[in-house]
Amino acid sequence: MNGKSPKIQDVAKVAGVSTATVSRALSNPDLVSDKTRTTVLDAVAKTGYRVNRAAKNLRKRQSDAILALLPDLGNPFFSQILSGIESVFTTSDLSLLVSDTKGIREDNLLDYFMDMRADGMILLDGAIPRNILSQLQSSSFGNRIIFACEWKPEFDFPSVRSDNFGGAVQAIEHLYGLGHRKIGHISGPRNNVLTKERLRGVEAAMADLDLPINREFFIDGGAFSLDAGAQAARSFMEMSDRPTAIACGSDLIAMGFISEISRRGLKVPDDISVVGFDDIEIAGSYIPSLTTIRQNRTQIGVLAASYLLDQIANRITDNAAQVQEVGVKLIARQSTAAL
Amino acid sequence: MNGKSPKIQDVAKVAGVSTATVSRALSNPDLVSDKTRTTVLDAVAKTGYRVNRAAKNLRKRQSDAILALLPDLGNPFFSQILSGIESVFTTSDLSLLVSDTKGIREDNLLDYFMDMRADGMILLDGAIPRNILSQLQSSSFGNRIIFACEWKPEFDFPSVRSDNFGGAVQAIEHLYGLGHRKIGHISGPRNNVLTKERLRGVEAAMADLDLPINREFFIDGGAFSLDAGAQAARSFMEMSDRPTAIACGSDLIAMGFISEISRRGLKVPDDISVVGFDDIEIAGSYIPSLTTIRQNRTQIGVLAASYLLDQIANRITDNAAQVQEVGVKLIARQSTAAL
DNA sequence: TCGTTTTCTGTAATCGATTACATAAAGTCG
DNA sequence: CGACTTTATGTAATCGATTACAGAAAACGA
Fold first, then answer.
1. Chain B contact for A254, CB < 8 A?
2. Positions of E strands within A90-227
3. Which residues of chain B are within 8 Å of residue A74 when distances are taken between CB atoms?
4. What is the largest CA-CA distance in chain A?
5. SS (H, E, C) B147-166
6. How far off is chain A from B230, nearest CA to CA, in Å?
7. B120-123 and B159-162: which strand pairing?
8. C1' nearest to CA of B33: which nucleotide?
């Protein structure tokens, strides 16, 4: 150990073979004889050799990294998904790069591929501008991209997502089962795909159950946040005729809503039942604990990461862009009650 | 545009100069004449050239990436810090790599430096095994590491953290100010530095205020989680003589605690006042909204990232390992009330 | 004007791996 | 046994940038 990192040359010298053989012994063990392989491995252990990633990647024209692009790194919703993604990459010796889309707008996503910073991307933001996506799609990197959670309907990149429609249906059916007939909905960000799917589910379920759809009961929250819920609560309080139950576009909306109406004297679930969507960590400990639709976020991460790896390695034969829907499940807790 | 990424050679040809000049024009503009520079920049624009990171990094023996190492990527607590970190790196053209310590134990952290995957590290986990840290410290990469949030007292890596001691003091003083004299504490993970600092703060404040320290009122939560709080609530219910106020080691503990005692018929803040620590996003919308100690997590991320960059680039002259403490602030809400 | 310094640019070595190609040795088969 | 295939290894080109070194041109000073 003289402080300098050993190079493949050093290993070759110690093992008494050529650098080519060392390289092969490490990355293509079948190509060398058993004896040579053990000699080389010993030499590697002895020298403490580690492959220099920059050199390897330059030669192989790759980067050994995947970028996960989030709408907002500060949003805790995504941490579970990241965790799922990372668990896959760790076993593949890939690095996980993260960035949020705020920094992206101007400088181009394509650059990550062009300058070899990433071999693939997992997009968690459905609001990436169309022109950037077209550019990606028509480039030679179009098949190194996958959407997770959110997606962009006009593009046929593969995607992994929850069954948002089905989740909304479950929420409505649950409320119906408890006897509720006047059901409202607070939706998320206006142009968000999740918002639309969930709204579609709500309406479909209501139609199926022969419930009259009262537009007054549909509040446009405008975001998935606590604030949106609180805001919606204010609209709610002003209604002359109020629904007895509300299905929310997210848990945060639900909590913001409950928080605000409680402050104004209403009780959940006595005066109104509330269902969330997501099942974030605190949902079970909120007071009242929140009935919600559980999304398996870790699995979404795992599936997206695995699929992307297969895709990059060309292991996917069927080249129709694939949509994987992950099942969701209603978790009944105390924010909903029989009428 | 024939689909192949242009190389520096191509730019050189278009601009009618050597590759050396192109390189200089891009990374050391002062070294070339004004005229040449504009010619080169035009050629770059015309060809759509982007520097190949692997080649650049190989030559410069760097990686253009910083690793953030979290105890648990799935834990939403860290997302804000990551966001702060990322905001700094984006402006520096550095990539942010993330990983959690679960994958680390076996394979060595030092490897990230050895194989040039990272130029530096931000450690958010105080529980990294001692031998790994010693190895890092004694390597030539010892000065490319910084702790954020948590830290390891025996090592003198620089670190950025909240004023945990001061936060605990504020919590106790707040409760004292409301008239509470029988004050308890639920602590976090046993060997965690934050746990220790906060406990120290609690005890110091109590001593200062001449409050008797009743060991029965100190519950060992064992973790910062909701569950720990719920568990502690059960111990609490069994006490013959109960404190009238509790300072918790984290917001999650506080919420788990409130949730559980509410289920058992106690009311917050009527029967007992509760203070959290962290001010996580939902704290303000919890019911009751949580009085807590606000940590500026984004700023911790920003400071850690900036300091690390300075350290790597400028070789910070003052080589005494620096500890930066970020101030915290008590946010009074509805989970605490006058006795 | 001539020598000296400064500014600008080009040539070619270099970073540290992988791998195409060549070749020697070993194995196969009629 | 000789022709042919397979296996194992080495030599050297290659990936695409940066930069040490050198030389030409321009600026400067006396």
1. no
2. 95-100, 120-123, 145-148, 159-162, 183-187, 218-220
3. 79-80, 82-83, 298
4. 88
5. EECCCCCCCCCCEEEECHHH
6. 9
7. unpaired
8. C8
Q: Report chain A's mean pLDDT, rounded to a whole number.
A: 93
For residue B62, give Cα distances in angstroms to A93, A169, B66.
Answer: 19, 52, 11
Residue B196 confidence (pLDDT) above 70: yes
| Interface test mutation site (partner B, options A100, A225, A281, max chain B beta carbons within 10 A) | A281
CA nearest neighbour of A178 among A244, A237, A233, A267? A244
Whether the CB-CB separation of B186 and B217 falls below 8 Å is answered with no
Kindly report the length of chain B.
Answer: 339
Domains and CATH numbers, chain B: 8-51 (1.10.260.40), 60-161+298-326 (3.40.50.2300), 164-295 (3.40.50.2300)
Cβ–Cβ gap A76/B289 under 8 Å: no
Question: pLDDT tens digits for A139-171?
Answer: 999 999 999 999 999 999 999 999 999 999 999
Mean pLDDT (chain B) is 93
Partners of residue A101 in chain B, C-beta under 8 Å: none
Contact A75, B79 (CB under 8 A): yes
pLDDT tens column, B241-280: 999 999 999 999 999 999 999 989 999 999 999 999 999 9
